[in-house]
Write a structure and sequence with these properties.
mainly beta, Immunoglobulin-like, about 0% helix
């Protein structure tokens, strides 16, 4: 079972944000992942993510968080969305808590979290404006 709860804004005037998709005005960054060291695969783990984002290209959008837990079959590069929340045009910093069972993909991939921002969904097709993927180390 995955449980996500979003925290309140942490900073009133955050600094610049970087993202894996640097070709847009919109940015998202995962600043802190706790616990910071390897997590035990197969054991439910409590995570806290400090996330900073800049939404500039639209007035209102959505921030999503997902993990490559294997819920889409044996696809280590597919992320299951576990949280989404409405965000507004601005730069902000938020804290998100999550419980998830980490997966060890062996040589095929690493356990990862994906944070994306984009327009509100109106159908099943969705393309993020910016995203950040971070590895979460696992141990036996």
């Amino acid at each position: 079972m995955i449980v996500i709860s979003a925290g309140m804004s942490l900073a009133s005037e955050p600094g610049p944000v970087t993202s894996d998709d640097s070709q847009t005005l919109d940015k998202v960054a995962i600043l802190i992942i706790q616990p910071g060291g390897p997590v035990t695969r197969g054991v439910e783990t409590d995570f806290t993510f400090d996330i900073q984002y800049t939404l500039e290209s639209i007035d209102e959008g959505v921030l999503t968080i997902g993990f490559n837990t294997g819920s889409h079959g044996a696809k280590p590069n597919a992320f299951e969305e576990v949280e989404s929340r409405v965000i507004e045009r601005r730069t902000d910093r938020i804290s998100v808590k999550a419980k998830v069972i980490p997966v060890d993909w062996g040589d095929r991939a690493r356990f990862r979290v994906s944070v994306s921002i984009g327009p509100k969904r109106e159908n099943s097709t969705w393309r993020p404006l910016a995203f950040k993927i971070s590895e979460i180390p696992t141990a036996p």
